[in-house]
Amino acid sequence: MPTRPLGANGPLISQLALGTMTFGAETDEPEACAQLDLFVERGGTLIDTADVYAAGASEAIIGRWGRARGGMDDLVVATKARFGPPPGSRGASRRAIRRCLDASLNRLQVEAVDLYFIHGWDRHTEIEETLSTLGDLVAAGRIHNIAWSNLTGWQLQKIVSTARAGGYPVPVAVQLQYNLLERGAEIELLPCCLEAGIALTPWSPLGGGWLTGKYGADARPTGATRLGEDPDRGVEAYDRRNTERTHAIVDAVRTVAGRHGRPPAHVAIAWLLARPGVAAVLLGARTAEQLADNLDAVDLSLDPGDMETLTSVSAQGLPSYPYGFVQDWSGLDIWRRLGT
Ligand SMILES: NC(=O)c1ccc[n+]([C@@H]2O[C@H](COP(=O)([O-])OP(=O)(O)OC[C@H]3O[C@@H](n4cnc5c(N)ncnc54)[C@H](OP(=O)(O)O)[C@@H]3O)[C@@H](O)[C@H]2O)c1
Q1: What tens digit of pLDDT does each residue of 193-209 get?
Q2: Probe ligand 1: pick from 18, 282, 294, max atoms within 8 Å of CB?
Q3: In the structure, what pLDDT confidence band is assigned to residue 221 with cuts at 50, 70 and 90?
Q4: CATH for 3-338, among 3.20.20.100, 3.40.50.720, 3.40.50.2300, 3.40.50.300?
């Protein structure tokens, strides 16, 4: 599998990464281990988890699998802290991060985390406190690189500026929801990442399953699928996503997929891999069979016509002010280039 650098200063990682949010939840341990084995066999190196996935079960499964194969030094393991602080702590505070990291290292059975994400902004903790804590942990060899998830543009810029001014580590990556159905990150976050040399690692590349084409307009889903089990779940909730715009995008994805003789999921993944700033796409799967299908997307190359079709059908449009007003004279023609 091709590798890419994770931002200006991060490690080399496989361009398809394994997301493990399903592990210990809808995916049991044997099936999770089958996914991990398959992913590594196919050349994958970046494995993404979080302390809150299945209340730590995802990390623990990865830890047991890693121990059984003799370690994970050949892989880049990412985990996150913020949403499961110990009682009495704010999510991104010194006390919380130190304790959460100890717990994650213990469950993962490793001495250091390769990539440590703060899972979201914490308005109750000064950013200097979070950054200096992370800097100390990098210096102590317990974290190799830092990263952030789920931010606005000004929050990321504040992190970068504070880190540079204070001599703290700068994030190498941002993990964000980014897919053909949700392109809001292109307005502020993506330009900030490009400017600062920070990699994008999009989550929910298939929009939680919608971009496989498996959810129709007329019937609420049933059965063993994410929305079959819980139609109100998360950002992909059926009533929220079941719109004309969604189905127009899914139809365009199907048409492009048909031209290439591929499943729609390949097209959704290939579109993301071709977007500026994207280093690795986080695949999520319930089964090893789904993962095998999605890994096959790696060799699909979309031509400029395909990209234009997909980018224009999914454009969300910019608010007219300030974006429409400033883009002609501010030098920020990034949104035009992105087809936002
Ligand atoms: N930082 C954050 O806040 C955050 C948030 C969310 C996710 N993430 C990360 O991103 C990863 C991926 O997110 P995601 O799971 O939402 O990604 P996704 O690719 O949008 O959705 C994955 C789901 O789609 C369905 N699916 C996948 N491949 C399929 C196929 N070939 N055919 C039919 N259905 C298929 C499966 O659900 P069903 O079979 O159950 O329908 C699977 O669990 C996570 O594992 C996690 O590591 C991070």
Answers
A1: 999 999 999 999 999 99
A2: 282
A3: very high
A4: 3.20.20.100
